[in-house]
């Protein structure tokens, strides 16, 4: 049977974990945000923006593609508040791209179609577009 001290410690730990998760911080010192980017043009030249995350110190920055219309492949990058971009990396649904040694800053997720294609073959006036959901993780 647990002593009252053990019960208090467990309650404090549980409450602390709840606070971390409610603020978007993970216990391992990372910020995790999930977002959706709508209407990514299939011409692969237009770039759409998503959520912003703070990179608290040098470390990794990750983006996982959770889903996409017709399982489209997506090119991902993130732009720092100084205007510097991480290099583009592409994913399919379920894949994660990772950048290492990312410097502290606020980064905004950016996406474009990986390879130009016609997502709307029945519309001669448009290449079409697609939607993507993702999870971004930064070192806090």
Walkthrough of the structure:
- The chain has one helix at residues 4-22; strands spanning 25-26, 30-41, 48-55, 59-68, 74-80, 89-91, 96-102, 105-113, 129-139.
- By secondary structure, it is mainly beta.
- A five-stranded antiparallel sheet has the order 1-2-9-4-7, with helices on one face. A four-stranded antiparallel sheet has the order 3-8-5-6, with no helix packed on it.
The ordered H/E elements are HEEEEEEEEE
Q: What's the N-to-C terminus distance?
A: 38 Å
Strand content: over 45%
Order of adjacent strands in the largest pleated sheet: 1-2-9-4-7
CA radius of gyration: 19 Å
Sequence stretches where pLDDT stays below 50 over 5 or more residues:
11-27
**Bulk shape:** elongated
- Helix count equals 1
Instruction: Identify the quaternary structure here.
Output: single chain
How many individual β-strands? 9
Largest sheet: 5 strands, antiparallel
Q: What's the pLDDT, averaged over the residues?
A: 82
Q: Helical residue percent?
A: 10-25%
Task: Determine the structural class based on helices, strands and strand pairing.
Answer: mainly beta
């Amino acid at each position: 049977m647990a002593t009252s001290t053990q019960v208090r410690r467990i309650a404090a730990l549980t409450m602390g974990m709840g606070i971390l998760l409610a603020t978007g911080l993970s216990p391992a010192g990372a910020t995790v945000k999930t977002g959706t980017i709508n209407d990514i043009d299939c011409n692969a030249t237009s770039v759409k923006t998503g959520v912003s995350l703070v990179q608290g110190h040098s470390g990794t920055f990750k983006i996982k593609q959770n889903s996409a219309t017709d399982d489209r492949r997506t090119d991902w990058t993130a732009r720092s508040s100084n205007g510097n971009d991480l290099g583009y990396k592409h994913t399919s649904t379920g894949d994660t791209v990772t950048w290492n040694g990312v410097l502290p800053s606020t980064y905004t997720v950016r996406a474009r179609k990986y390879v130009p294609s016609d997502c709307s073959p029945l519309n001669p006036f448009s290449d079409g577009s697609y939607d993507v959901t993702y999870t971004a993780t930064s070192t806090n």
